[in-house]
Amino acid sequence: MARSDEAEWWFNAVFEAVQEIPRGYVTSYGHIARLLGKPQCPRQVGICLKHLPTFSRDTDQFFHDDNVPWQRVINAKGIISPRGPGGAARQAAALRREGVTVDTGPLGELTVDLAAFGWFPSTLPSEVAQASESEGREG
Predict the structure, then answer these.
(1) Which of 69, 76, 71 is nearest to 34 (CA)?
(2) Which of 76, 14, 10, 87 is nearest to 49 (CA)?
(3) FRET pair for 95, CA 20 to 30 Å: which of 1, 20, 21, 89?
(4) CB count, 10 Å around CB of 102?
(5) Taking the model in full, what pTM does it have?
C-alpha cells in the first residue's frame, strides 16, 4: 500500500493511534493528526483509514479492519463522514454496537455528541506509559 518508508510510517502510526481509542468513544481525524504531531494532516488520517485492509485469513496484513477500530474516527463536527453507498450507515451501526448514541441531524447526517462520547487526550496513552517507564528506569 505505502509507496515510501515515510508513507508506511504514517499509515502504521495512524493505525496504532486509532487502536488506542477506547470502545464506546470517538475522536476526530484532526485529533489523531495532532496526537501524531501533524495537525495539518487530518485528511491524510482519513486516507489511511479509507485504505485500511479488510481482514482475511488468506493475507498477512498486520493492520486490518478487524483490529483497527476505524469506526471510532469521525469529523470534528461530530458527523460521520459520508462515503460510498451505505458506508456512513455501516459506521453508525458499528458505533451503536459499542454503545455510542448516533443521531440523525436535520439534513439526514449521522451525528455523535462529542461532549458525551468524545475522546480527546493530549497525549496517546501508549506515550504516557512509555514516558513513565523511562522515568522509572532513570530514578
Answers:
(1) 76
(2) 14
(3) 1
(4) 21
(5) 0.89
Cβ-proximal residues to 70 (8 Å cutoff; 6+ apart), any chain: 18, 49, 52, 91
In whole numbers, what is the pLDDT of the chain averaged over residues?
92
Which DSSP letter does residue 118 get? B
How many Cβ atoms are within 10 Å of 46's Cβ, its own excluded? 19
Determine what percent of the chain falls in helix, strand and coil, rounding each to the nearest 5. 45, 10, 45
Grid coordinates given for 73: 474516527
For residue 137, the Cα-to-chain-centroid distance in whole angstroms is: 31
Burial of 73 (0-12, 13-18, 19+ CB in 10 A): buried
- Residue 59 pLDDT exceeds 90: no
Contacting residues for 133 by C-beta, under 8 A, at least 6 apart: none
Q: How far apart are CA 12 and CA 35, in angstroms?
A: 14
